Structure formats: C-alpha cells, structure tokens
Amino acid sequence: MIKITFPDGSVREYEQGVTGLQIAESISPALARNVLACGVNGETVELNRPINEDAKIELYKWEDEEGKHAFWHTSAHLLAEALQELYPGIQFGFGPAIENGFFYDVMPKEGDVIKEGDFEKIEKKMKELASKDEPVVRKEISKADALKEFKADGQDYKCEHIEQDLADGEITTYTQGKFTDLCKGPHIVSTGAIKAIKITSVAGAFWRGDAKREQMTRIYGISFPKKKMLDEYLVMLEEAKKRDHRKIGKEMELFMFSERVGKGMPIWLPAGTELRLRLQDMLRRIQKRYGYQEVITPHIGSKNLYVTSGHYAHYGKDSFQPIHTPEDDEEYMLKPMNCPHHCEVFAWKPRSYRDLPLRIAEFGTVYRYEKSGELHGLTRVRSFTQDDAHIFCRPDQVKNEFLRVMDIINTVFSIFNFTDFEAQISLRDPNDHEKYIGSDEVWAESEQAIIDACKEKGLNAKIEYGEAAFYGPKLDFMVKDAIGRRWQLGTIQVDYNLPERFKLEYTDDDNTKKTPVMIHRAPFGSLERFTAVLIEHTSGHFPLWLTPDQVAILPISEKFNDYAVQLSKYFDSVGVRTIVDDRNEKIGRKIRDNEMKRIPYMLVVGEKEQADGTVAVRKQGQGDQGTMTKEDFAKKINDEVAEQLKATEM
Description:
Blueprint: E1 2-5, E2 11-14, H1 20-27, H2 29-34, E3 37-40, E4 43-45, E5 55-60, H3 65-86, E6 91-92, E7 97-98, E8 101-107, H4 119-130, E9 137-141, H5 143-152, H6 156-165, E10 171-176, E11 179-182, E12 196-206, E13 215-224, H7 227-243, H8 245-251, E14 255-256, E15 267-268, H9 270-289, E16 293-294, E17 300-302, H10 303-309, H11 311-315, E18 323-324, E19 331-334, H12 339-347, E20 358-367, E21 383-393, H13 398-415, E22 421-427, H14 440-456, E23 462-465, E24 474-480, E25 486-495, H15 497-501, E26 506-507, E27 513-514, E28 517-522, H16 527-538, E29 551-555, H17 561-573, E30 578-580, H18 587-596, E31 601-605, H19 607-612, E32 614-619, E33 623-629, H20 630-645
Parallel strand pairs: 1-5, 16-20, 22-23, 29-30, 29-31
Antiparallel strand pairs: 1-2, 3-4, 3-5, 6-8, 7-8, 8-13, 9-10, 10-11, 12-13, 14-15, 17-19, 18-19, 20-21, 21-28, 22-24, 24-25, 25-28, 26-27, 31-32, 32-33
Organism: Xylanibacter rarus
GO cellular component, one term: cytoplasm
Enzyme class: ligase
C-alpha cells in the first residue's frame, strides 16, 4: 500500500500502481468524469500513469490551468493527426499547448498550401478522429529507435530535434490512432473528451525561431470539452476584435507606427501623450506619498555597465548591437533595463543603514529587440517606458517594503477597476539550490517575507516552486479584463544578484559593511502595455479624469463657431479639457465622429444656445442630457472628476 496526500492535507491509502483516474473514481464518479490530468509530487502526468510510491496528488479539471494545458496539448496532436491524413507527406515541427489553445508548426509537401479556406475541412477531420475516442498511449523509446522510426516516416525536423536536443533514456512518444509524436506530455487519456474545435488562424514561423532557417506554416486552434464553451469563446473573440487597442487607438488618434521610424517603435500622438502624462502624474502622486525619489537616466549606457549587470550576457546576442564611437574600444548600448543605472545612483556616495530603504523611481524608456513577427501593437514593442522603481533595503525591511508596494499596486488596480486578478509567488526549486545565488538563510527569509506579506494582505496567492528568478523570489499579478482575458501587469521582484555584482554596500549600525537587498517593482509594467490593456478593458471609454479630451463642442453651422471658441476658452480656464469641431459638416456627422473618438461629452450649440448662453449636452452612449448653463456644466464635469480622483488618494 502507498499513502496519497491530497491538497487539503488528508491522506488515503491505495494499492501500489494506482492511477490518478482510479483515485478520482474512489472519490466520486462525477469527479472521474471531469478530471483531465493529475499532479504527482508537483509534476503533471496522465491519469493512467501508475503511482508506485507515497505521493502528493492534485486532480486537475478544466477549470485548472494544468487541466487545460493537457487538453490543448492532446488537441495539438489531434490537429497533427488530421493534417497527416489530409496532406500526405507533410512534415511536423513543434506543436505545444499555449495560453489559449494550441498550435502546430508544419511543412506541407511542395505544392500544398494550407490557408484560411481549409480551416473547415481540418476541423471536420479533427472532429471525426476525436469521435473515435482514440487512447493516447505513452511509450519510452531509445534514441536509436526514435531516429529509426521518424526517419522511416520522412520526418526530417523530428530527426534533427532528436539528434540535437534529446538524450538517450529520456525520450518518450505518444501515439493516438495512426499518429505518433515525440513528446514529454502530459496528455489526456483519450481524444473523446474533445467535443468542440475551432482553427483560428494560420501564419508563418521560422523553424526553431531562426530567421535563417526555412519558414514553416503555423496553424493555431482552440478546443473545448463542450460546444457551449466554444460558442462563448467565439462571442468573446468578436468582442475582443471590437476592443482591439490597435483599432481603437487609431480611431481615438492616440498612437501611431511608422516604417521609416522603425518597427515596434510607437509614436504617441497629442491625445495619447495627454493620456500617458496623466497616467504618469497619477503614479507620481501615489509614489510621493510612499517616499520615492525620481531620477532620470540616459537612454544608453556603456557596454561595461551591462557586462557588470549581466544583461549583456543575457540580452547581448539577441538585442540591439553595441554602438561604436570614434574612440577605440568605446562601446555603448541602448538601455535594456533601468536597474543598472539605479545601482550606480545608489553607489555614487556612501550609504548608511539610516538611509535605507532608499526608493528610486523612473519612467525610463528601454529598448529590446523583438522579432518582427512577434511585434503586436503596444503589447509587444521594441521601445517602451517602464514605470520602474528600485528599493534598496536591509533584509529585515523586505517584508514591509513588499507590503507598501502591494498597497501601491492595489491602489492602481482599484483606480482602473481591475477587480479580478490573481497573484503568483515564484519560489526556488526546493530540490535544486545550485542555480540560485545567495545563501539559504537569505532566501528563506525573503521567501517567507513575501508569503507573510500576501497573508497579511489577505491575498490568496498561488505558490509556484522553481519559478523564481536566479537572483530572488518574486510576486506577479495577473489581471482579468472586462471580457475575461488574463494579462500580466504588476510585478515585484527581490534581487540579491545586482547588489553583489555592483558591490553595493552600506554601513550597518555595528559599523560593518553590508550588501543591501534590491526590490524591483513596476505597477503598470510598462506604459505601452498598460495603455493597451486599459484600452481593451474599457473599450476606449476612459474615466473622465484620464481621457485626453473631456468635451467636444459642436457648432451646428459656421455661424456659431465664434461662440464655440468662446465656450472652449471658458472651459479651459476652469480646468475642463475641450476641443471645438468646427468642420463644415452636418451635426449628425460630427456627433458620429466624436462618438467614435470616445469623447465623454458633446456640447451642441446653435442659435438658441448662443442667445441664452447655454449648451445642449450629449453624453457618450447615452444621448441627449438636456440644456445647461456653461457654469453648471463646468461644475458637473469638475465634480465628476473630483469624485473619480478620490480613488487615487487611497
């Protein structure tokens, strides 16, 4: 008999060789019907994998990420199985599960092209194969046998993968029907659970991500255990298209891109700059209350700075290349991170324990090379500005500083109504301390500080072992937007690496020299990504205090343009941001165009309004709001803004 420990701490005994499915059946038939995979001592495995020793077990359903991952991993193999039947001679690259669905990189034989018009027949074939409820069979195989098998099938990419990446004794295959793939798993036990399938897109992808290698065809898809789930997902996709920040950003004239300026280099237009500056001002006000000092550092730095920090070793090969000056051996790099500059700020004069914690903040623009095919609007760019800050503190101050940063992040999230979010604590691999720097004592203290801070805040954070950075543990915040998509925004990281590399020190109260702990934090993450998420979360309907133009004044005809300008000057003088739409267009067209720009209020003015000194008020999405004096309308706007800004003073 072996002992199985469940997540709630309870223990049951089972016969050696019991499977996750049998354990689920022993609990309830309903659980057995819904479980997709299981975790055994932290490793996700198939439900039919025998358990031969005492173990901690988790049973994963569709609601769990691990369950979805196994489901979509098998769906990727199902896609490949369908393609194998539909396109004889096709070669396969890699086919993983991703955050929303799966993809497979394939190379059709010469003359075959897979395009959008083929999606329906691929889906049909996948459903046909799934309906056979084919078992997914795992097999351990030697390197020689794997090469022999995949060479016989003409799978050149699989053979290259075996030869270059896989070690003998660690190779497994998974077979369903007539399709066999190299794979580590995990999978669901059979294809019958896959009830609803949608092929979503097709794109090009270089083999191994290397632009010098051949371009393959990447086919994306998603699948569900129920058709209703797919229907709901497709509705969400349609809503996502409407909310696409690239589309709304163009309609609101917030930002642009220029091929001449360069790919992935956003240009903030006047309205977008207004938006960005208000975001910065909001965070500046909050940070000021928490004792941050702001700095400005250069956009470039000596190559030696990034060699010292380790960023050159990490980013150098795949980043923008060094800039050479006329002087021999003088090289600079575009700044990939703000933290090395902030280490130099700490080091520029002697520090005492009385100076700590030292909190240094910067809206610092950084540059990282991203492949052209991976660029996406503001969410994936080559130039972006981080709302960065670095806290230098003593080890005993880590927990309190964590609590303070969590307060800032909670304030930011509440201001923008990001009420649905998850947190993940990333800790060391308890079985492998070699890949981390710093003493066990310091790690134990810092990890416990993060765990205690989360408990103190009542934050039910998920703990992931082995996900810490090599320099320290971290806490990440995943936000769900208005249509249920997850985005990583705020992050807090503890770092023992950079202070050591830069030989930072402070004089402690016993007059000895000590190395400070460094905390990285960014509540927004980056202004670009945060703005993109905010646009899609609100569909461009920003809170009144933030929106670039609060009011559009629409004269009915040219005769009332002067009155509109007078109103605009008055409103500007009392802090209400206005624009005048004095185009020679009909009033209906002006209303439609300004609705498209998501301007919260429109004031229609004509002969009666000019004579009475009033404005006819329209509200975005709500239509006519009646007539008001300019003074009453200004008070209404300023009162609404004041009420909203209370949240920024939490």
